[in-house]
Amino acid sequence: MNRIKQLSYLILLTSLSFTAASQDISAMKNMMQQEMMASCQDRAFLSCVGISSNKCTKSGRKAISSCDHLFPKSMAAMSANNGMAMEAFGECINKTMLKHTGVPSNRLDACDSMADNSPAGGQPEMDPEQMMAMMGTMLKQHADATGTSGVTLPLYKNAVVKAHFANGEMANTFDDIKPIPALTMESPDGINKIASFYRGKLKGFREYKMLGGVVFLKNGPKKFDRIKDMKKYMTTPHVEIMPTPGVSNTSIQIAYEK
User: Fold this and answer.
1) Cβ contacts of residue 216 below 8 Å, gap of 6+?
2) Among 40, 80, 129, 240, who pairs with 56 as Cys (CB 3.0-4.6 Å)?
3) In sequence order, which ranges of 19-146 are alpha helices (DSSP H)?
4) Rounded to an integer, what is the distance from CA 83 to the centroid of its chain?
5) Residue 87 CB partners (closer than 8 Å, separation 6+)
6) pLDDT truncated to tens, each residue of the chain (258 aa)?
7) Burial of residue 132 (number of CB atoms within 10 Å: 0-12, 13-18, 19+)
8) How far apart are CA 253 and CA 189, in angstroms?
9) Which pLDDT value is given to residue 123?
10) How many CA atoms lie within 13 A of 228 on its CB side?
11) C-alpha to C-alpha distance for 237 and 36, rounded to whole angstroms
12) Which of 106, 131, 156 represents a domain boundary (last residue)?
């Protein structure tokens, strides 16, 4: 990952962390500009690529303005589709910065390598797994600040809350859907044990087996396709119990009405 793309990820993560609870878009953008200006002071790197600090800063501001439409509008939007919003924003910043600075991508890569191999060491590169780990930490902090007192469906006791969007933040992720509040937990218990708990707690919910897991949907139809019926799914109380990719834990998503 070259330095400009890495910088865009760091800017995004920093700004979203700074405003996770408030969802203040103006504060996010101000933080982005501050981070960009601070990162355009690396004299050795700027000398290698052949641009001034002033040009770097101006190019950064232009890039932020050009890529503004891709900037996630909430923590929920940031995490949607495994972080694709963050990836798209990073790619846009990268391409736009290269365009405005006039630095060829092969020269940028060469200067990155020089910085990485220098005695002082370059800025540590952040791989996608680290990005997702940081994003998970921020979502957890946001969930802790939100609390669970407003959740109107039963919470599974042997589970940890990982994310909670109690104020309709997910609405920024979809054009024509206004999802109800949703909370995500993880548990070391198996799917069958968790599903057994909810069978006795959710009256009026229909149970479905799908994707290796179980879904309970309030007043659900006999036949249900989560992809085709996504609008109904996102706007109807439900409990989704699924395996967590890459780990042995089970994911529990609770969508509820206030």
Assistant:
1) 198, 199, 202, 205, 206, 207, 208, 238, 239, 240
2) 40
3) 25-39, 43-49, 53-66, 75-101, 105-117, 128-146
4) 5
5) none
6) 455 555 555 555 544 444 444 444 455 556 666 666 666 777 887 888 888 888 888 888 888 888 877 776 655 555 554 456 666 777 788 888 888 888 887 887 777 666 555 544 444 455 556 656 666 777 777 777 878 888 999 999 999 998 888 876 554 445 566 778 889 999 999 999 999 999 989 999 999 998 889 999 999 999 888 778 888 888 899 999 998 876 789 999 999 998
7) middle
8) 14
9) 46
10) 4
11) 42
12) 131
Written as one letter, the residue type at 125 is: E
Residue 82 makes CB contacts below 8 A (sequence gap 6+) with 132
Give the pair of three-digit tokens for residue 59.
């190019």
251 secondary structure, DSSP code: E
> Which residue range(s) make up the domain with 86?
3-131
**CA–CA separation, 158 and 253 (whole Å):** 14
Residue 89, token pair as written in the block: 């924003």
Lookup: tokens for 96: 């736009």
Could you identify the residue written with the tokens 């998970």? Answer: 136
Return the DSSP state at 190: -
What's the total number of domains in the chain?
A: 2
Environment class of 97 (CB within 10 Å of its CB; exposed 0-12, middle 13-18, buried 19+): buried
Question: Domain for residue 241, yes or no?
Answer: yes
